[in-house]
Amino acid sequence: MRLNVERSERMGIGVVLCALVALFSFPAAAAEGGLQLVPHTDRLITMLVVSVLLIFVVQRLLFAPVFQVLDERDERIDGTRKRAAEFAREAEELLTRYEEALRTGRDQAEAARKQVLEQARDGATETTTAARRAAEEEIDGARQAVGEALERARAELPVQARELAHQAAERVLGRTLPS
């Protein structure tokens, strides 16, 4: 609105100056008494009245609509700039929320990964411990079986040794020996 008033004042001053220049720029006319620079008074008054009327007519018909269009354009530009600034602010907020959500998601994924890794380590430790226990039990069972077999072999060995010695003696002698 202030812009419109300033423009109107400048244009009004400009129009008045143009009218004054036009009034006083009529060619000089030669008269009987010499050179006449200013036209007759009646013609001067007519030209002043016409110029003043033209100032108001031109102001109303030409300058006012032009200034109105320029003011409306300025208002639209200002409104568009405000909307653009609002959109930029909203975009910045959305970007901030997106980055925060992304950061939160990464943190949650990292926590879940650590948890799964810890569970896998615990599971591997449990599996290894269970496998060691099973292997130790199997080794203990095998040792017991070997020990029992050794005891049986020790118990049976003297009997079998006597039998083998008896059979060897029968073959060497070629006859049957009493048992």
Topology:
Blueprint (H helix, E strand, L loop, with lengths): L1 H22 L5 E3 L2 E3 L4 H133 L6
Antiparallel strand pairs: 1-2
Helix pairs in contact: 1-2
Describe what this molecule looks like in 3D:
The chain starts with a helix and ends in a 6-residue tail after the last helix. Helix 1 (2-23) packs antiparallel against helix 2. The protein has helices at 2-23, 41-173; strands spanning 29-31, 34-36. The longest helix is centred in the middle third of the chain and has 133 residues, at 41-173. Strand 1 (29-31) and strand 2 form a beta hairpin. The chain has 179 residues and is mainly alpha-helical.
Structural class: mainly alpha
Q: What is the N-to-C order of secondary-structure elements (H for helix, E for strand)?
A: HEEH
Query: How are the strands of the biggest sheet laid out side by side?
Result: 1-2
Termini Cα gap: 143 Å
Main sheet specs: 2 strands, antiparallel
Relative strand content = under 5%
Share in helix: over 70%
Outline, from the CA principal axes? rod-shaped
Radius of gyration: 61 Å
Mean of residue pLDDT values:
82
Number of strands: 2
Number of helices: 2
Q: Note poorly predicted spans.
A: none
